[in-house]
Amino acid sequence: MVEIRHKTTAAVLLTVDGDELRGIKLSNARLAGASLAGWDLRDVNFQNADLREADMRSAKLAGASLKSCAFNAADLAEADCEGSNFTDATLIGTNLCGAKMQKAILRYAQLSGAILCGADLQGADLSMADLRANFERANLAGADLRGSNIKGANLAGANLMNANLTGADLTSAKLFGANLQGATNSLGKALAKPAAAKRVAAAPWWRFWK
Q1: Cβ partners under 8 Å of residue 5, min gap 6
Q2: What is the pLDDT of residues 134-151, one digit of tens each?
Q3: C-beta separation of 89 from 108 below 8 A
Q4: In what helix (H) or strand (E) does residue 2 lie, and over which residues does it extend?
Q5: Which is more confident, 19 or 198?
Q6: Which of 42, 77, 87, 135 is the most buried (most CB within 10 A)?
């Protein structure tokens, strides 16, 4: 039997039969403030669950279904969310610093005020999402940002190589030191092309005989 407790009161929020949570269905669960730091939650179905203010630091969430979940003010720092589905989820003010979110799906997600410093979002789908968040030094290489709201977002030092920004609103976004090679702008045009490799002239044949 697994008991999920509140992070401060230790009150039991949910009891689950079995020895682990991996792969089970917890849709619509009421887990606000839950203590889940470091737990193995891979492939769990959390759809529509309330996880506001939950402690999920370093939790293993790869492949989890997190559609329409509420993560407001939750702590997911260093969590492994590779390939997880956050479609329509609310992550307002959520801490995702250093989170591993490669190829995660965050379509229509709300991340205003979220902190994603150093997060790895390579190849992630953030199309149509509210991304008015802190992405400083985040890896967004190859990410799909089409139609997203990035107004005033902090993208300083972020890697946006080959990212798709077609239709995205970048008004007042901070892009100092960001890598935009191969990325497309809001009009679907290339922002910067990778630098061409310099051609080194071959040494004359007679120099080999010195």
Answers
A1: 11, 12, 13, 34, 35
A2: 999 999 999 999 999 999
A3: no
A4: strand 2-5
A5: 19
A6: 135
Hey, what are 121's tokens?
């979002």
Give CA–CA dist 199/27, Å, rounded. 58
51-64 pLDDT per residue, tens: 999 999 999 999 99
Joined together, the tokens standing for residue 56 give: 């999920």
Of 159, 93, 164, the residue nearest 126 (C-alpha)? 164
Residue 195 has pLDDT above 60, yes or no: no
Closest residue by Cα to residue 152 from 169, 127, 166, 140: 169
Q: pTM to 2 decimals?
A: 0.85
- Return the pLDDT at 66: 97
Q: How many CB atoms lie within 10 A of CB 9?
A: 10
